[in-house]
Amino acid sequence: MLKKQHLPPNIARLMLCVLCSSLLTGCWDRIEVEDRAVVLAMAIDPVKDDEQFQDEEVTHERGQEPRGGKIRVTMQIAVPGRLPLGPSDGGGQGGAGETKPVWVLTTEAYSLDDAFANMQQQVADQLFFGHLRVIVISEKLARRGLQDINETLRRQPEVRRTAWMLVTKEDPGRLMKISPQLERVPALYLYDMVDHGVLYGKLPRANLGIFWRSVSAPGQEGYVPMVESRKQEDVFTSGLAYFRGNRMVGKTEPFQIPLFMEVIGVENAGYSTLFPLPGKRGWVAYQGTSRRTEIQTFIRNGKPRIRVKIQVEGNLHEKIRDPRGNFDQETIRKLERIIARDLQMKVQDLIHETQQKGSDIFAFGEYVRSEYPDFWRRNVEPHRKGWERWFRKLPVDIQVRAKLRRIGSEAK
């Protein structure tokens, strides 16, 4: 029989100490919260040629600056100890409190990373982007192209993919200084506005990670919400900005947002739409509640085709200028056909607009690529413009069915 062999006591104690010491290790690169400058929001817009430009010379010598456009970056930085736990501070002043919870700083630079370096020269603590919630881009800069902006943000490991990128046609720096009554921190209000819009069926989910994934996909283009500040405390969702690659090429109207969501199959519906009653006797407000979408792809005569089947359900919320009182079943069926026909025409118009711009925000190309990979390798990949060349002339058949679920107490 073999005898059991035991380790010498000294070696056993040494191994036990080594194992226990691994449980005592900490974060080697930790930085205390008090030593971080937490960036909550950021606005980026181009500096006009006729504007005075302040070259900080932090990352370069004078005369060795990079060529190209100049940008202005505005940041909201959280002030330690002033971030509220609720929407207001007990005084009921909301965003008009005496102590501001954020510090707004602006710098001008040749690139986004250059702006970060310039901003760090103004802030004692290290900039931290782990809690960045919103990035607001001016429409002029978005139409110029966001290649450099996305390049820098993607290389920044602290930037979370759950942050939102927004586009505005005005000065984005204004949105860093708004004073909403429901939230003292402007960045959190902007974030809640778009995030709750997804929850209530007002917006498709289009955060930073989804936008980057769409831009990188060969058969899809990216889109982000558009907002505008009409007053110091008012922000309005004005549509969707859609891209071709990293460059913005068009935008939708607010009423086209639910049309887009119907095509891509967002189940939750939260918009009201006005439709005429049969016989032009008045109008009704139709509130969508849910939708189902099926996208089918075909190859006919060597060319792709798309069929989109949409089923929408909703309730009648209001009647406007209707001299008659009750609704009978025949009127309800006619109204459902009017709603379906109107939605079909508006969806076709939206698809036609995006086809003219060559921006497939509906991901039709991804459906073709996944179901017909051989066709994609032979006919799409070899061409320089790729799927854009096919999408511009892609036949799309739209079929819509509408259902009225709740009519109201006056229906017969």
UniProtKB/TrEMBL annotation:
Residues 29-228 form the Spore germination protein N-terminal domain. Coiled coil: none annotated. PROSITE patterns: PROKAR_LIPOPROTEIN. Its main location: membrane. It comes from the Bacteria. Residues 238-408 form the Spore germination GerAC-like C-terminal domain. The keyword RNA-binding does not apply. InterPro entries: GerAC_N, Spore_GerAC-like, Spore_GerAC-like_C, Spore_GerAC_C_sf. Keywords: Germination, Lipoprotein, Membrane, Palmitate, Signal. It is found in: Membrane. Pfam families: Spore_GerAC, Spore_GerAC_N. It is a lipid-anchor. The keyword Signal applies. Belongs to the GerABKC lipoprotein family. This is Ger(X)C family spore germination protein.
